[in-house]
Design a protein that fits this description.
2 helices, YaeB-like fold, five-stranded mixed β-sheet, 95 residues
Length: 95
Amino acid sequence: MNLKFTPEAIGDSIRIREFIEEKNPIAAQRIANELLIGVEKLKVFPEIGLMVDRAPQPELIRDLFIGRYTIRYLIGENEIVVLRMWHGKEIEKDL
């Protein structure tokens, strides 16, 4: 499986890292690595995340939880597309 990121997911990743980096650069690097390792697992285990019930095709749109972070992704025929990323304290509708 190939792994792709939407522009929004890339922006989310940058936003998350910059927010943490202001107070703790070491933690920012650690969390960025944890998120990347978790996302990489989707290549082998694409259905590891929970289905998003309110999605039009819940079997294809899933949420992967890594610590307090949510990674929303789409399972394609030969690829995983990371749609968005956010911390649990963020309000999803604002993303």
